Amino acid sequence: MIFQVSNVIFIDSPTGSGFSYATSEEGFISSDTMAVKRLVVFLEKWLRGHPQFLSNSLYVHPQKKKNSLYVGGESYCGMIIPTLALEIHISNKESGEEPLLNLKGYFAGNPVTDDRFDTAGKVQFFHGMGLLSDELYEFAKENCGGNYSDPPNALCAESIQAIDDCTKDINLSHILEPKCEAIWSPRIQQATARNVTSELTSDAQQLSYIWANHEGVRESLGVRKGTTGEWKRCDRDLPYTRDVTSTVEIHSRLRREGYPALIYSGDHDSKFPFVGTQAWIRSLNLSNTDDWRPWYVDGQVAGFTRSYSTDLTYATVKGAGHTAPEYKPKECLEMFARWLSGDPL
């Protein structure tokens, strides 16, 4: 069965990623905050150029209901999406007019949030999944005091090196899957496009390279000829500054402003595991409105969820990695549809 949940705009950001491009070298220079401001400008320009999407004309007469805007993303978008939501909120407040961007909520999957929580979560996750011995885990806890991102002493650094040695040959995106060599490693970067696909164990990753670099696909997508070279899944060569170091306080601000939020994690992702995500959510000191429980798709457990005050929903996606929709698209679509409609997972 095919059903429509929402209209979706997929945006390649920052400039230079995906099929996006700039007309000058300076245009490729970006940062977290610059990317957010460019996204706001883009969304406003796009909606002015496509006014039919300003109103929810699928269900209600355009003059009666303004379309709701939700912003969301995966992985490093954990830094961008909350910052973008807050930027839109502030811009709407300062305009003094009816806002063009009718922000109603945001969502983030497998999100990068704060190195303290993310890194500590990895160590706890590795131990919980049986990748570290009890002795090594306790040694690391004792000597690092929870600070695994910036070792405070030699014994902590030693324990972190031992943890790295234990996990270096694990597929960090999904610990049950075979390891796929990072596509930005020097050896892969020296390979031809054909050889790149042969190094990727994921069928989806192989197909994405073939698909996105096919001339017919680019023509169908309206990609302007000569604007981009080879499509890359993750381009590490872009001139980019990471100037947002944590979004925990931004999440807290958005909670106070009352924006609904959906945060979710693939439960086999060790890059930004659910353990760290749950830890920073707990740091917001929100009260529970729904106890930890399973949620279902087609009668099967699809993950576990908990709801908090100020309209925050957290969910794990069972069997998914980094990122969750890549591994469990059906379950993630159902999760998104329920949350968007205001129904409990």
Derived from helix and strand composition plus strand pairing, the structural class reads: alpha/beta
- Give the integer mean of the pLDDT values: 89
Question: Strand sequence of the main sheet, in spatial order?
Answer: 2-3-5-8-7-6
Q: Which word captures the global form?
A: globular
The residue fraction in helices comes out at 40-55%
Number of helices: 13
pLDDT < 50 runs, ≥5 residues: 56-64, 184-189, 191-201
N-to-C CA distance: 19 Å
Instruction: Please describe the biggest sheet, giving its number of strands, its sense, and whether it closes into a barrel.
Output: 6 strands, mixed
> Which architecture of the domain at 25-114 and 244-341 would the CATH scheme give at its second level?
3-Layer(aba) Sandwich
**How many strands appear in the DSSP assignment?**
8
Order of helices and strands: EHEHEHHHHHHHEHEHEEEHH
CATH class of the domain at 25-114 and 244-341: Alpha Beta
Strand content: 5-15%
Radius of gyration: 21 Å
And the CATH topology of the domain at 25-114 and 244-341? Rossmann fold
